[in-house]
Structure formats: structure tokens, C-alpha cells
Amino acid sequence: MTIAIHPVAADPVDHLLEIGLKDLWYPICPSHFIQENPVSLRRLGRKLALWRDGDGVLHALEDRCPHRGAPLSQGVILGDRLSCPYHGVEVRHDGTVTRVPGSPGCKLEGSRATRHFHVQERAGAVFLYNSKEPVDTPPPLVLPEQLTDDAEYASFLCYTEWKGDYRYVLDNVMDPMHGTFLHKQSHSMAEGDSTAKFGIRPTDTGFVFEKEGQRNVNFDWTEWADTGIHWTRLEIPYPKTGGPGGNFIIVGAFAPIVKGMTATFFWRVRKLAPGWERDTWRFLYRNRLEARHWHVLEQDRVMLEDMEADANQHENLYQHDLGIVRLRRHMRNLAQQQLQGETAAA
Question: Which sign does the torsion angle of CA 17, 21, 26, 28 carry?
């Protein structure tokens, strides 16, 4: 079984997948990336300008002035507007040009000439709604409970940028068996059988890919979900030396930066109510566990970055790879549906 994901010339389905499906929420950066000055980011096939107004509210525009295309991110913040550094054109957060100081009253003034994007901040990250067309009100951002229920869960965000297509990162998460081998020296993934049979269990929002007959021993299952944002979730059993909170939960989400670069978000979560147990775990994490977790991530990064871009076109997949095959097919179907919708609308 082989389903290629490497971009193929003139393949609109693959191009759409490469830059990211539309009408979905994506995490694009940690919240702390955007402070007192505008920031320019390339994400999802776009160049974005992000800034905070005087109340700290986050805004996002296409990073291109509608006058001559200069980067708005190099301009001055005027509350909910950016003033372009090139000729002083002022663009409001909704994309409307409010002032053209060099030519007052010209037709550019009052026009909604710049693409704007809806953004929200949750769980230490900035999320952007990647709409195909501008929308006044985006659908709600629905995240897993581990990132929204602060009364039950505590988390840390691990953000990094990897060289490689984000779909390879998804493949890696949908492959529980790699934990048994690549991470076998890990303090939490050294146990369990090195052989396994896997099954797929549908859920209301996606599916779970899991080992049959083994649970709470190693990296034994992984979940993919679509709640208006695509995210993954898995659990890894923890020894008592890892502190209170039961299994170690990892929630992941990914966004393409430019071709061959991925923004990776992994939230490390324990189920702990506020109190001394949560405080103990957070202390252990910062002082002992975090370095170990980054070491595991580094193993994944090195493996994925050293794979050839067309590695998936030379695969010989087997039963352990059913989750990868299921997700690749589903993603292609979603892309085809979006393109067919565009054709029908035209």
C-alpha cells in the first residue's frame, strides 16, 4: 500500500494539501511571539501581519499594503489599524483602508482592499481561521477538553519548527509503533510488546488507531479529530517518578509554514486539578521532565528531517500503517471536496 503525499506538478489536490485545507482553524505561533511590535509570519501559503492593539487584542491582516504591496508589518500600530511605512496608508483590522494621507478622498479610502483573518488565543497559542473567502463571523474554535478545561487539566506548550512537510509530522503521530523502536530508551516508552496488531475505531469527530490487546503500557494508541480544527491526541503511561496525574497526554496540531517547513505544536498535559499535586507536577516538568521530552521530540525531528522528500513514494506499508493510510485518504478526499465546491461555485 502506498499513498504519495509529495507534491506533484499540476496536481491541484496536492497543492491544496501542501499549503493547508481551507475553512479550518490552525495554530500559527505561540502567543508570546506577538508583543509590542507587528510581526510578519508565513503560514498556510500566506504572508500575515499580526499585531496587538492598546487593549492587547490580537489582529491579523495579509501582510501587503493595498496601495503598492509594501509589508504592513513594518509599519506603525495605530490601535486597531496599521500604518504602512511606505506612504502612510492606514488599514483597519477588518481590511478597510481608513486613510490615504498622500491623496485624501481617493477611491482607495473606505474600500475593504486588504484580506483580514480571524484570530483567537487559547492554551498559549495563536489560532487563525484559514477561510477560503473573507467571513464576518468564523465558526467556533473547538479544542479538546485537555486544552480548555483549566479546572481539570494542566499543560505546557512545546513549539518548534521542523524542516519537512507537515503531513510527514502527521504520519509520525499516527504511527504508535515507532515509539517502541525509535524511543525505546525513553523513560516512558521502554515497556510492552515489540509486535502488535492494530485496529481503527471510529469516533464522532475522527478515529482512534490502537494496538489490540495492549493499553496503558506504551504509546499504544493515537487519535485524529476534526472539530473545525485538525488535532491529534495520545497518551503515554508514566512511572510514579513522573509525579501525580496519571497518563501523560499529548495533544498535537500542525501548520505549514512554507514548502518544506512545519510549525509543530505539542501540548504536554496531565489531569490535575489546581492544588499541590498540579504544582508538584509543574515543578517536576520544568526541572526534570521537560529536557527528556525535548530529547524524544529531537529524535522525531532528526528522523523526519533526514527522510527524502519523496520517501513516501518508495514505501512498502504493512498492517501497522493502516492509520497513516486512513488519514492520507481522508485528507485527499477533503481536498477534492473543497476543489469541487470551488468549481461548482464558479
Answer: positive
Cα angle: 259, vertex 172, 312; to 5 degrees: 60
Joined together, the cell numbers standing for residue 47 give 504572508
Q: Do residue 80 and residue 217 come from a single domain?
A: no
Residues 121, 158 within the same domain: no
Q: Are residues 242 and 296 in the same domain?
A: yes
Alpha-carbon torsion, ordered 27, 32, 38, 42, to 10 deg: -30
Rounded CA-CA distance 90/97 in Å is 6
200 and 324 share one domain: yes
| pLDDT tens by residue, 51-63 | 999 999 999 999 9
CATH number of the domain that residue 39 is part of: 2.102.10.10
pTM over cut 0.85: yes
Q: Say which residues have a Cβ less than 8 Å from residue 197's Cβ, sequence separation at least 6.
A: 211, 212, 213, 319
